[in-house]
Amino acid sequence: MASLPSGAGKISHLNAVILGEALASEENDFVFPSDDFSRQALIPSPHKYLEMYKRSIEDPAGFWSGIASSEFYWKQKWGDQVCSENLDVRKGDIKIEWFKGGITNICYNCLDRNIDAGLADKIALYWESNEPGFDAHLTYSQLLHRVCQLANYLKSIGVRKGDAVIVYLPMLMELPITMLACARIGAVHSVVFAGFSSESLAQRIVDCKPKVVITCNAVKRGPKTIHLKDIVDAALVESAKNGISIDVCLTYENQSALKKESTKWQEGRDVWWEDVVPKYPTTCDVEWVDAEDPLFLLYTSGSTGKPKGVLHTTGGYMVYTATTFKYAFDYKESDVYWCTADCGWITGHSYVTYGPMLNGATVVVYEGAPNYPDSGRCWDIVDKYKVTIFYTAPTLVRSLMRDGDEASYFVLISRLLSLQYVTRYSRKSLRVLGSVGEPINPSAWRWFFNVVGGSRCPISDTWWQTETGGFMITPLPGAWPQKPGSATFPFFGVQVYCNTVTKN
């Protein structure tokens, strides 16, 4: 432990429990993986982690080019230089480049490559409606067909490589379909969280000047209906005032939320998805792109009051998201994976769509609210689809545990009720849990570990940012002990520096 790259040195007062053998309590500081879990893990020990980590730091070009060339398809390999960077403004523009000159396509790697590997009939997406009892699924071959149809439609209306496409969709299967369709033809998708206001949407439209806006007429979140098309209409009026007019608004009819006849419509601009997209061929040629060509633009609110677009390019993002997903969740081919994040955020890009599908994973997509019709919905979905990896935010964990700051009678009753919502479901399929977003406090970590995971599931507490595109600090489930509330150690290729401020 003292030799791990935390600089922690000797750790005293070590109290330990073994995964699956006991609950984590205030006194138990460390949760160690069991021998059985470690034996089957991709990274089974601190020694293996250190071996890979050391190489990733001392020879990053060799480390990442080895992964890139062995686990992904490249139409053309990159040149002699695997990576280059300039982080000094005195020497020119800031830039970071990976695999420049390499020609690939992330959609091809997500779909075609997996189908060629024998996964054509494997479930790619399970979709769960806001309303219990309504669901759907797509195999990898069916998903490819749907992606190609939309890609062909986009090409038919003039969308070309490098063009921007604004996507304002809820968590329907059509959202990852749209992202992959854009990637297939080299278009740059910009997904906007379908909860943002018309003003926020208009700002993003004005900034990236898209060829088309893709949305749906409405969505239900819990018992509430949100009229997304009305929000888009207002945004398009506002963007037109700023000189950006949109010729096509492709709209999916989400029948469970709103019917066509109740949807406001502008003839000549608005097009129903169901009327046009299914008519196109289910095959579409891939637009091969350079590793440094743009993949997507994702806006962050920032501190200036004006959204700032973070642009991720193709090659480095593809290799890193797939690799972080694989090791941070100890992914196995039999896993069923559910990340509760929306694709309007970076987590949904990297760990709902691209990271999992690059690994050929089966992904659950849930449209609705996590506490609808009650606080047991998440665990109902886990049991229904036999979810093995469950990745969520501390905010949701705390909401579901109904934590309180005081040990009052009402807090006690609340906690007992939250416990019942979990324990009425089996959750036996779960083997790895994950946390994303803000730091998870130790009490929420313990509840997540003890109650949801039954003290048998390690928690990958991930730390990263929109700008990084993938995990920077994260546990590797079978490699080392976990401390409640700690993200543990850096991922491969990441060096962590601590700035210490001293007072005179």
What are the key terms here?
single chain, 504 residues, alpha/beta, Rossmann fold, 7-stranded mixed sheet, 5-stranded parallel sheet, 22 strands
Characterize the structure shown.
Helix 12 (346-358) links the parallel strand 18 (336-339) and strand 19 (362-366). The chain has helices at residues 35-40, 46-58, 60-71, 106-110, 112-119, 140-156, 174-184, 198-208, 228-241, 273-276, 315-328, 346-358, 377-385, 394-401, 409-423, 442-452, and strands at 16-18, 30-32, 83-86, 95-98, 103-104, 123-128, 135-139, 164-168, 188-191, 212-216, 219-221, 224-226, 249-252, 270-272, 289-290, 294-300, 308-313, 336-339, 362-366, 389-392, 432-435, 459-461. The chain is 34% helix and 18% strand. It has a domain at 139-308: Rossmann fold (3-Layer(aba) Sandwich), CATH 3.40.50.980. The two termini are 33 Å apart. The radius of gyration is 23 Å and the shape is globular. Mean pLDDT is 91; it is low at 403-414.
Largest sheet: 7 strands, mixed
- The CATH class of the domain at 139-308, by name, is Alpha Beta
Termini Cα gap = 33 Å
CATH architecture of the domain at 139-308: 3-Layer(aba) Sandwich
* Share of residues in strands: 15-25%
Please bin the fraction of helical residues. Answer: 25-40%
Give the CATH topology of the domain at 139-308: Rossmann fold
